[in-house]
C-alpha cells in the first residue's frame, strides 16, 4: 500500500510555527513594558508604595532592557541564540510569577528587574532567530507579522492592564500570563531551530560598566525627585554613574572585542541618531506613568477607562507605521526622523491643554500626535543607524540605537516623574516637548550618513545575526 501524500496545508502551517513562537515571546516582552502603567494607584495602595517606588516599578524593567541589550547580543553569539532565548523565557516566567506574589514594593521591584534582565535576553535573540528560520519572501512576511505584533502589544498592554486591575486585581497582570509563558516556552523549545555557537568573547567588563552607569544615573534622577537634589543618596547615584561611564570608555578602548566600538562615535550622523533615539522615545512615552496617575487621581477615571484613553497613542502609532512605513523609505531618513520628532514635540505641547481642567478628552489630540510622530521614527531608525556606521559595525550600531532608546525611556520616566512631583503636569509636557524638539534639531544639524540609508526591508534581509531590534515598530 502506498503511503499517503503529505498534507501541504499542514506542512505550510507547521512552517510558520517558529514565527508563532517568536511572536508570542515578543508579545509577552513588550506587554510588560506598559501593562503596569494603569495599575500604579492600586499597587501603591496594596503595597504602601510611595511615588519613588512606583517609578522604579515601571522604570527598572526598561532600565534592565537598555543596560543589557547589547551585552545579551554578544552572549547570544557565544551560547547560541535559541539557548539564550529559552533561558531568558524560562527566567521571565519565574520572574512574572514572582511579581504576582510579591508582598512588598521592594520585592516587586526586584522581580521586575529580573523580568527586564530576562527580557533583554529574549529581545536580543528574537529577530536573529526569525532571520535564521526564514529566507526570501517568507522572511519579509515574517518580519511584517512580527512588527504588527510588536506594535499591537503596547495597546493590548494598556487595555488588559486596566481591565484586570479594575475587575480582578493588579496581581492578575502577572498571574494571568504565567500559562501563556509556559506554553510559549514549550512551543519555542520544540519548533525553533538551534543555531551554531560562535567562539566570540563576551565583553563582561563593558556590560557591567554600562549597566552600573545607567543604573547610577537613573537612581540619581529618581532619588533627586523624591528626596532632593542635595540628598547624599542622589549625589552618590550620579557619582557612581559618572565613574562607571568613565570606566566604560577605558574598558572599551582597551578591549580587543568591545561591546560598543568607540570608533562609531566619530561619525556625526551616528551621534545624531543616538540623540534622536534617546530623546524622541522618552518624549513620546515617558509621561505615560504620571499621566495614568493624573487621570485616576484628578480626572476621576477608573483603571479601565484610563487604559482606554491611553490606548489612543499606540493605535495612532500602529496606524501611522502601517500606512506610512513604505513611503518613508523614499525620503531621506534624517528628514523622516526629524519630522517624527517634531510631531512628537508638537503633541507634547498640545497635551498642555490638560492644565485647563481635569478632563480627559482634551488629551486625545496630543496622544494621537505623539503616537503618530513615534510611528514615523520607529520603522526607519534601526536601518538608518546601520547605514550611519561602517559596514563592519552595522549590527551593533542598530542595537546601540535601540539601547539608547530604551535607556532614554528609563531616564525619561525618572526625569518626568521628578518634574511631576515638583511642578505638576504642565512641567512634564514642557520638558517632554523640549526633548523631542532637541532631537529633531540635532538630527538635521548632524547631517546625512556617510553612506545612503538602505530601505528597511533590505537592511533586515541582510542582517539576520544582528541584534538591532525595534521596540514598537
Give the helices and strands, then pairings.
Elements: H1 8-15, H2 17-31, H3 40-47, H4 51-79, H5 81-101, H6 105-133, H7 136-167, H8 172-175, H9 178-191, H10 204-227, H11 232-254, H12 268-285, H13 288-297, H14 303-310, H15 312-328, H16 333-350, H17 364-377, H18 381-387, H19 394-423, H20 425-445, H21 456-461
Helix pairs in contact: 2-6, 2-7, 2-9, 4-5, 4-6, 4-10, 4-19, 5-6, 5-9, 7-14, 7-15, 10-11, 10-19, 12-16, 12-17, 12-19, 12-20, 13-14, 15-17, 16-17, 16-20, 18-19, 19-20
Supply the key terms.
21 helices, 75% helix, 0% strand, disordered N terminus, disordered C terminus
Q: Can you offer a commentary on this structure?
A:
It is a multi-pass membrane protein. It is found in: Cell membrane. With 473 residues, the chain is mostly helical. It has 21 helices and no strands. The protein has helices at residues 8-15, 17-31, 40-47, 51-79, 81-101, 105-133, 136-167, 172-175, 178-191, 204-227, 232-254, 268-285, 288-297, 303-310, 312-328, 333-350, 364-377, 381-387, 394-423, 425-445, 456-461. Helix 5 (81-101) runs antiparallel to helix 9 and helix 12 (268-285) packs across helix 19. The chain is globular, with a radius of gyration of 21 Å. It starts with 7 loop residues before the first helix and ends in a 12-residue tail after the last helix.
Amino acid at each position: 500500500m502506498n503511503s499517503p501524500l503529505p498534507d501541504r496545508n499542514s506542512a505550510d502551517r507547521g512552517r510558520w510555527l517558529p514565527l508563532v513562537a517568536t511572536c508570542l515571546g515578543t508579545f509577552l516582552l513588550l506587554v510588560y513594558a506598559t501593562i503596569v502603567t494603569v495599575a500604579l494607584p492600586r499597587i501603591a495602595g496594596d503595597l504602601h508604595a510611595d511615588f519613588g517606588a512606583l517609578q522604579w516599578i515601571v522604570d527598572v524593567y526598561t532600565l534592565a532592557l537598555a543596560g543589557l541589550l547589547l551585552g545579551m547580543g554578544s552572549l547570544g553569539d557565544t551560547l547560541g541564540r535559541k539557548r539564550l532565548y529559552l533561558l531568558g523565557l524560562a527566567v521571565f516566567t519565574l520572574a512574572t510569577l514572582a511579581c504576582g506574589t510579591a508582598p512588598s514594593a521592594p520585592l516587586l521591584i526586584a522581580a521586575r528587574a529580573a523580568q527586564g534582565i530576562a527580557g533583554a535576553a529574549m529581545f536580543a535573540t528574537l529577530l536573529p532567530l526569525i532571520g535564521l528560520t526564514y529566507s526570501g519572501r517568507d522572511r519579509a512576511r515574517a518580519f511584517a507579522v512580527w512588527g504588527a505584533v510588536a506594535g499591537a502589544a503596547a495597546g493590548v498592554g494598556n487595555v488588559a492592564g486596566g481591565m484586570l486591575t479594575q475587575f480582578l486585581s493588579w496581581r492578575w497582570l502577572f498571574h494571568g500570563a504565567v500559562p501563556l509563558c509556559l506554553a510559549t516556552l514549550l512551543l519555542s523549545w520544540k519548533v525553533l531551530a538551534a543555531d551554531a555557537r560562535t567562539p566570540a568573547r563576551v565583553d563582561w567588563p563593558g556590560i557591567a560598566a554600562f549597566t552600573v552607569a545607567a543604573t547610577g544615573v537613573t537612581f540619581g534622577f529618581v532619588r533627586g525627585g523624591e528626596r532632593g537634589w542635595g540628598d547624599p543618596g542622589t549625589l552618590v547615584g550620579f557619582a557612581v554613574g559618572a565613574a562607571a561611564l568613565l570606566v566604560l570608555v577605558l574598558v572599551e578602548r582597551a578591549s580587543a572585542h568591545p561591546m560598543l566600538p568607540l570608533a562609531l562615535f566619530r561619525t556625526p550622523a551616528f551621534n545624531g541618531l543616538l540623540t534622536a533615539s534617546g530623546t524622541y522615545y522618552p518624549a513620546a512615552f515617558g509621561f505615560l506613568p504620571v499621566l495614568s496617575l493624573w487621570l485616576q487621581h484628578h480626572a476621576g477615571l477608573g483603571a479601565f477607562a484610563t487604559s482606554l484613553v491611553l490606548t489612543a497613542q499606540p493605535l495612532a502609532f500602529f496606524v501611522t507605521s502601517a500606512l506610512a512605513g513604505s513611503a518613508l523609505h523614499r525620503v531621506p531618513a534624517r528628514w523622516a526622523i526629524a519630522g517624527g520628532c517634531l510631531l512628537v514635540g508638537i503633541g507634547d505641547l498640545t497635551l498642555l491643554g490638560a492644565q485647563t481642567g481635569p478632563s480627559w478628552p482634551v488629551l486625545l489630540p496630543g496622544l494621537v500626535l505623539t503616537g503618530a510622530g513615534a510611528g514615523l521614527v520607529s520603522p526607519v531608525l534601526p536601518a538608518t543607524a546601520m547605514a550611519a556606521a561602517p559596514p563592519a559595525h552595522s549590527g551593533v550600531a542598530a542595537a546601540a540605537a535601540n539601547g539608547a532608546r530604551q535607556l532614554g525611556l528609563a531616564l525619561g520616566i525618572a526625569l518626568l516623574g521628578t518634574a511631576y512631583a515638583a511642578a505638576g503636569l504642565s512641567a512634564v509636557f514642557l520638558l517632554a516637548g523640549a526633548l523631542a524638539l532637541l532631537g529633531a534639531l540635532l538630527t538635521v544639524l548632524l547631517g546625512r550618513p556617510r553612506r545612503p540609508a538602505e530601505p528597511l526591508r533590505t537592511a533586515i534581509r541582510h542582517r539576520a545575526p544582528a541584534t538591532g531590534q525595534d521596540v514598537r515598530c
